[in-house]
Design a protein that fits this description.
Metallo-beta-lactamase, Chain A, 25% helix, binds zinc ion, 7-stranded mixed sheet, 189 residues, alpha/beta, 2 domains, 3-stranded parallel sheet
């Protein structure tokens, strides 16, 4: 692991931060953590100890905050990562474009800039919470519409709620759209 990007500060996206200490220990150094100023303000408040100078042993995570914002292309871990804003209703989240790969989770509406950033993407990972509409997450029908507009060869659903039964998804999702699973590898040109 070379870098960490936080899309936003919701608990389901940040409470695993303490587990990065083992990555630090294996690599013998701090990890850069990229996020917006708003997200960094929240995580530096909640995990203040993770941002202190490195001490031997890594008994806590060691992270170097890097402020980024939507619209930027940021070099991270040898890649040029294009960042774009997404509407999560209760806050803005960061979407990512890395070469032929796109990543969009925790989004209920995609602004036009997001569609522009995702144009021509080959593999797209997208948050899809349930079958019925949801106030802050995209639901299945919406994600299918987005996927058809974006036209990625492979669209992979993530952040699925308990309503999304695996067997149902296998039979109901159109070709080219599939649920993710732990350890999945998405290959892009
Ligand atoms: Zn979430
Ligand atoms: Zn969220």
């Amino acid at each position: 692991m070379d870098a960490v990007v936080l899309t936003h500060s919701h608990a389901d996206h940040v409470v695993g931060l303490d587990e990065l200490r083992m990555i630090n220990r294996l690599m013998g150094r701090a990890l850069p953590l990229y996020a917006t100023a708003a997200t960094l303000a929240e995580v530096t408040r909640r995990f203040d100890y993770a941002f202190r100078p490195v001490t031997p042993g890594f008994f806590r995570p060691a992270l170097e905050p890097q402020v980024v914002e939507p619209g930027q292309v940021v070099p991270m871990a040898g890649f040029d990562v294009r960042l774009f804003a997404q509407d999560h209703k209760v806050m803005e989240t960061l979407g990512l474009r890395i070469g032929g790969f796109g990543y969009s989770t925790d989004v209920v509406e995609l602004p036009e800039e997001a569609f522009a950033a995702l144009e021509g993407v080959h593999g797209w990972v997208v948050g899809c919470f349930q079958r019925k509409p949801h106030p802050v997450h995209a639901h299945v029908a919406k994600v299918i519409d987005w996927a058809q507009r974006i036209g990625a060869a492979q669209t992979v659903l993530t952040h699925m709620g308990p309503d999304l039964d695996w067997g149902w998804m296998q039979s109901a999702l159109p070709a080219g759209i599939e649920p993710s699973f732990d350890g999945m590898i998405v290959e892009v040109p």
